[in-house]
Write a structure and sequence with these properties.
With 336 residues, the chain is α+β, with helices and mostly antiparallel strands. The protein has 12 helices and 10 strands. The chain has a 5-stranded antiparallel β-sheet with strand order 1-2-3-5-4, with helices on one face. It has a 3-stranded antiparallel β-sheet with strand order 6-8-9. Helix 5 crosses helix 6 and helix 10 runs antiparallel to helix 11. It is globular.
């Protein structure tokens, strides 16, 4: 979220004081990320910095319980959330779920390239996550992959809406024009995701615990060289390619280099990558982004600076060498 939510700092300070027993001396909004439902702050209490995350909308406790579990199991690349005074891993403030974590000074993977060591650390961390046995009590609320058509159906509806709906908002109007210009390509992406999803559903590949949004923005590179995986709101039990598709996938116009991928798999270890699952998840990610940005930009006029950023991100996905081109290149069924 680039725009600070309409929430007085005093309320946040009271929330941290009441929920965590911490006397906040300073609070600063951090304009980070593409998610318009997530706002983050740096707060300082007793001379110690903390990372405060506000999540609007539906919340699943697994998003905090799982990183705490993984951290406690020895996966050092996972930051554990801090308990409230009542022993929970989150608290509430109006429409937001509030989570407090240690603050790690660093940059994300968009702002700085991963070193060779960090690529191997990322591979090792994901292997640790993928091979972790999650206790039933923790795992029962985590969704399982069904290859559902939710995002594909939404994109079909937005393509139809863009054809015959006038939009007064300039960003919405520009997006609608873009959808019309790219209609054939977008429809093809949706169709390919559907066919590959049907093929995967028919043979039910093995599932593992997946972060499911492990793009460069959710990798934090600390000043001391340590690497951390953040933002656990999208957990799912799915084929491992749900995560592996990001390495070499070009999301955010990074992580496309074959050498980086080789370093990652040095850390991850020898594994067979299913090309059907890899292509499916790369297509489906693009379709999901189209649906989410259309929902944000065509159905509301809210978001301020986030609106222009979202439009630029979506348009950039179709540029040469970006995610659409990479998804097509990874699809071994495309010639058929």
């Amino acid at each position: 979220m680039l725009e600070k939510p309409d929430l007085p700092d005093e309320q946040l300070i009271s929330c941290v004081r009441d929920g965590y027993g911490l006397p906040v001396a300073d609070i600063a909004f951090l304009p980070l990320g593409f998610d318009v439902n997530t706002a983050v702050y740096r707060v300082v209490a007793d001379a110690t910095p903390y990372f405060l995350k506000l999540r609007r909308g539906a919340f699943d406790a697994a998003a905090v319980a799982i990183p705490r579990f993984l951290h406690d199991r020895g996966i050092a690349q996972v930051i554990a959330p801090i308990e409230t005074r009542s022993g929970r891993l989150w608290t509430r403030l109006d429409a937001f779920t509030v989570v407090l974590s240690p603050f790690v000074e660093g940059e994300n993977g968009y702002d700085r390239d991963l070193s060779d060591r960090q690529w191997m650390d990322l591979g090792a961390a994901l292997k640790g996550i993928h091979t972790t046995d999650v206790p039933p009590a923790l795992g029962r609320h985590i969704p399982r992959e069904t290859y559902a058509p939710r995002w594909r159906d939404m994109v079909r509806e937005f393509l139809a809406r863009a054809e015959d709906t006038p939009f007064a908002d300039p960003v919405a109007a520009e997006l609608a024009a873009f959808l019309r210009a790219k209609r054939a390509t977008i429809a093809d992406l949706v169709g390919r995701a559907e066919r590959l999803g049907d093929a995967l559903r028919a043979r039910s590949p093995a599932s593992v615990l997946c972060h499911a949004d492990i793009h460069a923005g959710n990798v934090l590179l600390a000043a001391d060289g340590a690497l951390y995986i953040v933002d656990w709101d999208t957990l799912i039990f799915a084929p491992k390619e749900r995560d592996l598709m990001f390495v070499g996938g070009g999301v955010g116009d990074v992580w496309r280099d074959a050498r980086e991928g080789a370093l990652f798999y040095q850390g991850y270890g020898r594994t067979e990558v299913d090309p059907v699952a890899l292509a499916y998840y790369r297509y489906e990610r693009i379709v999901e982004d189209i649906a989410a940005f259309c929902e944000q930009l065509l159905l509301t006029d809210e978001g301020g600076a986030d609106r222009e950023q979202s439009l630029r991100y979506l348009v950039g996905s179709f540029l040469p060498g970006s995610v659409v081109e990479i998804a097509y290149a990874s699809d071994t069924s495309r010639a058929g």
